[in-house]
Amino acid sequence: MAVHGKNQRLKYKRRRTGETDYRRRLKLLRGEMPRAVVRVSNTRVVAQIVNYESDGDRIAVQANSSELTSMGWPKGASLKSVPSAYLTGFSLGKRALSAGIDEAVLDIGLAASSRGSRVFSALKGMIDAGLWIPHNEEVLPSDDRINGAHIDDSMAASVESTRSKIEGASS
Fold first, then answer.
1. What integer pLDDT is reported at residue 6 of this predicted model?
2. In this structure, is residue 166 part of a structural domain?
3. What is the DSSP string of 110-144?
């Protein structure tokens, strides 16, 4: 319902367009921990460690699923699947640890919090990399989904080889 008139106060533009839930954002910022931001677009997964500053958020570390192709991910494979989201989170976790960041809180934005989703797959990757993020084990996807057994039988080998290349690159 649109409210018009000279005495009406407009909501913030990002709230009107459905891009930001300011109530949830303020709760996350009160904890004063870096945020592990995960966003799934139509073509890829982006994961970032973001620090709040009064003049605007600062990205400390970021990983993008389109970087996976240079690490052995199959060329025709999806860059927004559950396994690629896991590997993107794993890559972000390794980069965060090498940058001196060892804990964060998950920020999924306006994404639906469905158990086993791609957002929680990225969370599992960050946790497996060694990052400490408060979570509930029940929301994480199964190992079969992370290894891509629901996509293709040969996907597990691709996931493992890409993961080992990420570990080798971060060492």
1. 74
2. yes
3. TS---TT-HHHHHHHHHHHHT-B----GGGSPPHH
DSSP class of 75: T
The pair of three-digit structure tokens given for residue 119, joined into one six-digit string: 């957002």
pLDDT band at 115 (very low <50, low <70, confident <90, very high): very high
1 or 128: whose pLDDT is higher?
128
For the entire predicted model, the pTM comes to 0.89
Q: Which domain, by its residues, includes 154?
A: 19-170
User: With 70 as the cut, is the pLDDT of residue 2 above it?
Assistant: no
Continuous segment of H or E residues that includes residue 90: helix 82-98
E strand intervals along 44-131: 45-51, 58-64, 105-107
Residue that has been written with the tokens 């990757």 in this structure? 125
Residue 108 lies in a domain: yes
The domain total for the chain is: 1
